[in-house]
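Lay summary. Proteins are chains of building blocks that fold into shapes, and those shapes determine what they do. In this project we predict the shape from the chain. Here is one chain we studied, written as its sequence of building blocks.
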Amino acid sequence: MFSSETTLRVSRDLAVSRNTMVAAKHPLAVQAGLDMMSKGGNAIDAAVATGFAIGVVEPWMSGVGGVGFMTIQMADGRRTVIDYFGRAPGAATADMYTLEEGDNQTTVGFGGVKDQANAFGPLSILVPGMVAGMCHALKKYGTMDLEDVLQPAIQFAEEGFPVDWLRGMLIASQQSTIARDDETARIFLENGSPPAPLFGTEPPRIKQPELAETLRTIAAQGSDGFYKGDVAQKIANHVQKLGGILTADDMAGFEPVEVDPLVVNYRDVELLLLPYQAGGVNTGEALQILNGLDLRSTGFNSAATLHKIAEASRRGYADRNAYIGDPDTVDTDWARLNSEAYAAERRAEIDLQKATSVSPGSGISKQFGPGADPGNKDEGCTTHYSVVDGDGNMVSVTQTLTLIFGSTVTVPGTGVMMNDSMNLFDPVPGRANSIAPGKRPASSMAHAIAVRDGVPVLGVGAPGGRRIMDTCMQMVLDVIEFGMDIQEACEAPLIDCSSGTLLADERVGPETIEQLRAMGHSVTPAEVTFAPRAFASPTGVQVDPGTGLRYGGADPFGPGIAGGR
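And here is the predicted shape, written in a compact code that computers can read:
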């Protein structure tokens, strides 16, 4: 076959191990998780160590000032989701932001707010949940002491981590954002300039000694060391000094929530998805629709197959925008939304030959109608990691600050960079995802664990804003439906339906793109590059129940790796 031009091909090797596997967005975080399991810890011990470590070595994506979800499938059959997504401060109100016309959309979440106050600065901060969630998971499902699992994170914060070319480029691209806050700039810039690795010299290191002290306090006192006492008071005082509304009482009152996962049967596996206000409801609806369609006969990434995936996904997004919000405050019929019967109704709307108009389904909520679209400029401002241990326990975690560098507010004396997850609320009152005190915003996080005959066989997830949901869905399809290994799935071309157009990896081919257009899809081809990343950036672990081998994979265009022992 002849080609008129050279073609860039980027790949990673499939990681293989007999006992343990960790897939994460930084080698040091993978090392931290593997070390815990080498010392006799289980997958939850490793996940907590990885979670704290990744917040140190990838601090612009997540950390102790952030939020997230953890899904656990134990080898003995226990399963759970720990929801440590933050809550709005007690003084938050539905109309707390001044709305304005114009395009001031951020890369994640909702625009339309004057001065982007929901995305940057003190009014963008939710009560952080990461520390409470990690401590809860370790105490209930882990086997090691908090002091032990925090040691890698403390070491990385104290001694620093090296800045390679990719992370140096990321910091440079965010220089104006970093400069919004003096303390953030002090930590991440060198005399006002981003740290840059130079040929022939040791790479610069970012040290966070104040964060190391905060982590030591958590190690000694547990979550109370973060949510009560000196650290919490410093956080509340500083946020209020800047004009925010977060209080010490908001901090002291935070508790993670443990809920049952949303379980969707797809082909021969059970899929454990994130329920309620998270993105798993979106992917679950789409996968249940696809469960009644034949994808294998039309083949991987053919126009016919991509059409089915897109039509199912678009219906999931329509219902998400209309009905999804914190289950404590919205009147949503979750049972109907997640049912096979409802999926069958939505499936019957699909024309296999052409794209159709899509509206929210009926009977899901009496309280709300069509909601707002949060925009279409998503990037990978989050992190994901998955872990499996030698006993077969599997954990999948997604956590975030929301935007890169979060609110940009770093609290002096603590090293804690605060999230800007208020950006995920709809700033317009009267909708399912509008702001309310103590409320959790809708999240795009959508990692999944697949269980076959009681054995967890796959854990996948990705950072990438609203594009997380379609990426996670396709990761499941690529492995379960099309028989790929986890690394092949991490490298496979993707589509995304989270905006008004169908974003298609140009590697699906010009002929397929033209066929999709002929079927009525508005297609935007996307070049796949290291930066900016056009789609979410997946990682994952996989288990072969027959051989017991553990496999790991990571996006070759991203900084993540998988490793096992």
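What the prediction tells us: The longest strand covers residues 67-73.
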